[in-house]
């Protein structure tokens, strides 16, 4: 009798774990099954406390495979996949335009202009030195979606 509230809390906790992320009819079915089990057990002659303890034990046995699978999934998940959904709300997001790209670190305008000229010269050199490479990359962009994604989000050249 003294442990009834512990068993009720354990039942609620296990039901929460078993239906985590999918509060569908499954949750209602588990609750209804528990209530029916309690009603049958109390009508047979078991006390209410014993019925709750038996339901908690059955639910624990039923939850073990699910808990095991969730623990394996958690152990196999890359840690960043667990942290990034939370961290994305904390970390600042930066958006740099082409005009601000060269002086985003707070340098003087003459240093930013030197950077702009140097990058433009490098781009022109590579276009003349490796013309087939540029054409080939344009063809690859048509075939490979990852290249389209990165080329549309890289620094200006």
Describe the structure.
The longest helix has 29 residues. With 157 residues, the protein is mainly α. The protein is elongated, with a radius of gyration of 31 Å. Helix 7 packs across helix 8.
Helix content: over 70%
Strand content: under 5%
What is the first-to-last residue Cα distance?
A: 75 Å
The oligomeric state of the chains shown is single chain
- Low confidence ranges: none
**Secondary-structure element pattern, one letter each:** HHHHHHHH
What secondary-structure arrangement, pairings included, does this model have?
Elements: H1 4-18, H2 25-44, H3 48-76, H4 79-87, H5 98-101, H6 109-129, H7 131-143, H8 145-152
Question: Would you kindly provide a brief summary of this structure?
Answer:
With 157 residues, the protein is an all-alpha fold. It is built from 8 helices and no strands.
Characteristic terms for this protein:
mainly alpha, 157 residues, 76% helix
């Amino acid at each position: 009798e003294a442990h009834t509230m512990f068993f009720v809390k354990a039942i609620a906790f296990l039901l929460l774990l078993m239906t985590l992320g999918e509060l569908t009819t499954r949750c209602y079915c588990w609750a209804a099954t528990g209530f029916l089990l309690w009603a049958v057990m109390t009508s047979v002659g078991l006390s209410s406390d014993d019925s709750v303890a038996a339901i908690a034990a059955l639910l624990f046995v039923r939850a073990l495979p699910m808990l095991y699978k969730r623990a394996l999934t958690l152990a196999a998940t890359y840690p960043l996949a667990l942290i990034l959904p939370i961290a994305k709300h904390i970390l600042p997001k930066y958006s740099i335009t082409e005009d601000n790209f060269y002086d985003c670190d707070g340098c003087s305008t003459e240093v930013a202009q030197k950077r702009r000229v140097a990058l433009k010269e490098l781009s022109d050199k590579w276009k003349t030195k490796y013309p087939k490479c540029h054409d080939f990359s344009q063809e690859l962009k048509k075939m490979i979606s990852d290249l389209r994604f990165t080329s549309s989000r890289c620094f200006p050249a």
